[in-house]
Amino acid sequence: MIELRPELVTLLMLGGVLFGVIRGYPFALVVGGIGVLVGLMLYGPSMTREIYYDRVFAQLSNYILLAVPCFVFMGTMLEKSGVADGLFDALYVWFGGIRGGLAVTTIVIGTIMAACVGVIAASTTMLALIALPSMLKRGYSKSLAAGCVCAGGTLGILIPPSVMLVVYGPMAGLSVGRLFFAAFIPGLLLAVLYCAYVLVACGLKPELGPAMPSEERTVPLKSKLRMLFVSLVPPVALILAVLGSIFLGIASPTEASAVGALAAIILALVYHKLTREVMMETARSTIMLSGMILLIAGFSAGFVGIFMRADCSSVVANLFLATPGGTWPAFAVIMLVCFLLGMFIDWVGIVFIMVPIVTPIGATLGFDPLWFGMMLVVNLQMSFMTPPFAYAIFFVKQAAPPELGIETSDIIRGVLPFVALIAVALVLCIVFPQLILFLPSIML
């Protein structure tokens, strides 16, 4: 065994992970491999095997993580059910008459479906296929249209039931149910900020998002109300079934996730989309995404076990706590580090590695654990839209029909204002912490 100072071990482990990811290796293999190699150097095969076995087994047998495949299944099935198609048609005739109305419709649909889907790949792809062609056909700016699809689609990872929150809770020792309700108001705040930006931008520059021609929206009020009611009933029923049972204390998040998966199957059946091919594709997507998350979960648990055994967590804590100026500058540094990591590392890796390290630091700084956790989660919203590792950008580029001529540069220009709006939301949550803490405080 080799004797190394904790500072050097910290540099080797965290630097090695970042180097491996930038080089393009799978995150799970990078984390698992570095943890094993450092463990063998410091403690030998017997201790390393014991640390990895105990922590990986404890992580993968965590009851709460059973909700991950159920919520992934629910989101993937809903993407294929056709629920969003009817919702877009209904909102289309309500908002299409104002400048930027279709962009606002896209964000509103993203917000509603976020409370049903919870998987960024499903929600972003769905909006790219449904909303993007409609906006560009009516003369919308490519950047604005693509930016709205990215921003609206990524709300699914924040507004519950979110897979990120299911994963975050066990890592931080927080109730997933309380996290769900802490995320509601920040998620809606982001949606409001996004819509306000679109309306202001299109009001100042009408060419960005012209209003629909009057002949396309001459629908009687009674028909418009009927379309809206019919399209809203399925997602609202699903939201009440899943989140209502958690809020009222009837079911745990894991139990509610199973209810949501069943409800998604029923909705697909009602919309005549429940075919053998859809079931097979949904099952395949669920296995692949859930397997990836759980593989990272297991290897990250072993990595963090070695990291803490080597006292590296104290090195990181002392580094943050030594920030000049006290509590708020230290908090700002933590948020900056997580933001920068989000440009290179998947949110799953950040949650599994950084959260066990920074959560005790937040408590030492005197922050409410729930508020601190939600600030990190909102911060990670930016990671989906900040290159080079930007899921939403590449999902939209891949899903957009080739004939639309959407380039990656168009999407990047479109998402930058929305990244700035997430920063604004973070500031508002600092100034008004009850935006996060109010709903959890009234849970039954």
Q: Globular, elongated, flat, extended or rod-shaped: what is the shape?
A: globular
Number of DSSP helices?
19
Note the beta-strand portion.
under 5%
Q: Sketch the topology as an H/E string, one letter per element.
A: HHHHHHHHHHHHHHHHHHH
User: Which structural class is indicated by helix and strand composition?
Assistant: mainly alpha
Helix content: over 70%
Q: State Rg.
A: 22 Å
List the uncertain runs: none
The largest β sheet comes out as: none
The end-to-end distance, rounded to whole angstroms, is 52 Å
Average pLDDT across residues? 85
* Total domain units: 1
Number of strands: 0
What does this molecule look like?
With 444 residues, the protein is mostly helical. It has helices spanning 6-22, 27-60, 67-81, 83-95, 101-114, 120-137, 142-154, 163-172, 176-204, 221-247, 253-270, 276-309, 312-321, 327-342, 347-364, 369-381, 391-399, 408-431, 434-441. The chain has 19 helices and no strands. Helix 3 (67-81) runs parallel beside helix 11. It is globular. The mean pLDDT is 85.
